[in-house]
Structure formats: structure tokens, C-alpha cells
Amino acid sequence: MAENILIVTEDEELLDDLLRLCAAAGTEPQVAHGGPPSGAGWASWSGAASWERAPLVLVGDDCVGASGFGGAADDGTPRVDGPVPRRPGVLLIGRDWDDPGVWERGVRVGAESVALLPDAESWLTGRIADALEGVGSTALTVGVIGGRGGAGASTLACALAVTAAAAGERTTLVDADPLGGGLDILLGAERTQGLRWPDFAESRGRVGGTALADSLPRSHDLSVLSWDRGERALVPADAMKAVLSAARRRGGVVVVDLPRQVDATVAEALVQLDLGLAVVPAELRAVAAAHRVAARTRPVVRDLRAVVRPPGGPQRRTRHDAALDDTEVARLLGLPLAGELPWERGLLADVDRGRPPGTAKDGALARFCGRFWEQALGGAGAAA
Questions:
Q1: Distance (Å, rounded) from C-alpha 116 to C-alpha 318?
Q2: Are the C-beta atoms of 224 and 173 separated by less than 8 Å?
Q3: pLDDT in tens, 348-380
Q4: pTM over 0.90
Q5: N or C terminus of the chain with fewer C-beta within 10 Å?
Q6: Strand order in 90-94's β-sheet?
Q7: Strands 113-116 and 90-94
């Protein structure tokens, strides 16, 4: 960022607190002591240039009474046509919970939010750090979980990430299944330098989104957080929360490969999903198993959908379950249908040759993922 955070206040105690919070977020802000004068004096105000370019402006409640911050008309109503340009990213910072006027003053200065210290210190530190990272909208976060073992959830997660990255989306693939063998291997990135889950096991609080992305292995134009080949197969729930939150703040797309067993760590991942995909073969036993998985995840995931695979695996459809089509599977599970995903012949051979799932543009995976992202990133509410 060319500009830094701007603080506007004459309250020395408030200034000390805001400087401390900025330091905790890793920045040294610019300070304008006092609000702008009214009328033609705006251009001469020391904070005028930073006001227009700073990624975030923190205005002390002590300054909003100045006429340059809206002031009041002769009848006492707030003035909204003052010299201060309206802009996004302005926060009004106060202390007094018992002063109802602070919310009106927030409107007067055009603040997008009011933060009252000390209660909002943690939130404000994160908001400052987000502004420094250039955070806009958080990433569309999609989780993939198998309705039963061998359903192809990891394959689909990898293909979703590969196709999103190929379409130009900033993409992070998160392997949340410690017993899945490692998505870095599926990508052919097991020898690529970068941090793996055990390196983040002690993470707490806030992890920087940019620092996370810079530390992860990259393959096929995406970042991947996977497991190493060591014996450690668990990370604390706090670490999952901190790391996945950082990945989401980077924006773009985050794809999470989830295990079927839900513990406290997996629950932290589930609550951050925008959309969950349960991969289910169209077989009665698979549907029965998937029903239990859905029962555990549906209370947490705001939007859980079924991806149905033909029965019998990539070799053939089984005669026994031929009548169990994708619509019927979704109905039995009580889930919206995200679509049917055919098995892709030659996939294992492609992976052995270093071609991850989703790279074959004419393959079933790439076609399914392309349609999925077209609707998901386009904001369509219907299932793919």
C-alpha cells in the first residue's frame, strides 16, 4: 500500500491506544491531530491527502464535533454536505457505551462502523491488519467431504482448486484430512518447498493472510496446505481457525478437503465454509453412510449439497442400483443436488504422470468443476 492507516484525534489517551493496536497489527500509522476545519480550509488540513488515499481511517469521537466533520445546521440537524469527502473504510472510535449520540456521530462522519474501546480492541486490530493486506471480500470457501470412503472427495477438491486457478482465481487448497495421504502428492508437489500443517500447529489468534500465502508450496498456480510425511496427524482447533481465516482473508477461492469424522478441529473448518459438497456414489450403502455424515455436518454448514457419482466406480454401473439416480440420492439425503459427477477413465494414470485431477480439459472432472465455478462465482443461487 502506498499509504498507511490514518488516525484523526486530539485525545492523547485514545491516540496511545490506537498506536498500540496499530503496532500489534504491524504498522506505524499517520496521525492528524484534530479534525479538518470547515469551509475552504479542507485543502490545508494536514490529513487531507491521507484521508483520500489511506486504506483505513480511524476517527476519534472527540473530533466529530468539529464543523469540518459535518457539524450541524442552525436547527441542530447533522450537516452532511460539509467539506469532508465521503469514502469507504472510515471507523469512528469511542469509549462511552452510555452515549447514544456516538452512533449519530458515526453517521455524520460517514463511518462504516463504530468501535468502542476497550471491548472492540481485538476486532479493531484485525480490521487494521485486513486493511494493510488489501482485504476486500473474503474468499468463496468450499468444503468437500466424502459420503463414504473412496467416494472421490479428495479428487474433486483437487480438481476444483486446479480449475479455479486455471481460470485466474487466487486459489488456496487446504488439506484438512490428516489421514488422506496428502493433497500435495495428488498435485505432484510433495517435493516443493513450503510449510505444511505441522508447522502451523502452534498458531493462535491471527495469522497474516499474505504471510501464509508466501509460506505455502505452490503448484499449478495455486497454494496448497497439506501434511508432511511425519507421524503428527493432528492440529489444534485454534490452529485450524487461525490458518483458514487467514486463507479466506486473501480473497479468491479456498477449497477444503474434509475428513468424514468431525472433531473440534474439523468443526472449526466447517463453520467457515460458504458451501459444502458431499460426494456420494449412487449406491444404497453409500447413501446410508452419507446420511450419517450429512447429519453431523448439516447443523454447521450453512449450505450443504450433494454431488452424486454413478454406482460401481469408474469401470461400470451396477445393475442392482441402476434405478438410484442422482435426483433420488439427493432426495434420500434431504440435500439440494449440486450435480452428477461421472467417473473419469485414465485418471490414476494421469496422476502418475504428474497431471492432477482437473487438468484434462475434456475430462468429466474439468467439465463439472467449470460449470460449478461458473455458477458459484457468478452468485447463482441454484445448484449446478
A1: 63
A2: yes
A3: 888 878 889 999 888 999 999 999 999 998 853
A4: no
A5: N
A6: 30-32, 6-8, 57-60, 90-94, 113-116
A7: parallel
